[in-house]
Amino acid sequence: METERRCSFYRSFKSPGMGYGRGHCEFDCTHSACEGEIEHCGKLNVLKRYLMERSWMKAAIERRKTARN
Predict the structure, then answer these.
(1) What are the pLDDT digits (tens) for 25-42?
(2) DSSP strand pairing (33-34 vs 19-25)
(3) Residues in Cβ contact with 67 at an 8 Å cutoff, skipping those fewer than 6 apart
(4) How many structural domains does the chain have?
(5) Is residue 5 in a domain?
(6) Within 10 Å of residue 1's Cβ, how many Cβ atoms?
(7) What is the pTM assigned to this prediction?
(8) pLDDT at 36 (0 to 100)
(9) Which SS3 state, helix, strand or coil, does residue 8 take?
(10) Which domain holds residue 62?
């Protein structure tokens, strides 16, 4: 059974009169409607590219830190 993967850019929405509902995506500041499931992301290719670039940059920074020591 596959587990659900939640997106780190998902923000749930709670209305005082309506309770919890569909949330929104803060990935590119458009606040698109979102349910938080990565598999159903409308911007999946852009999200994957961003996450890969971010992990590459973190690894590059760590390499620089270790090279200086």
Answers:
(1) 888 776 677 877 877 788
(2) antiparallel
(3) none
(4) 1
(5) no
(6) 2
(7) 0.56
(8) 79
(9) coil
(10) 10-68
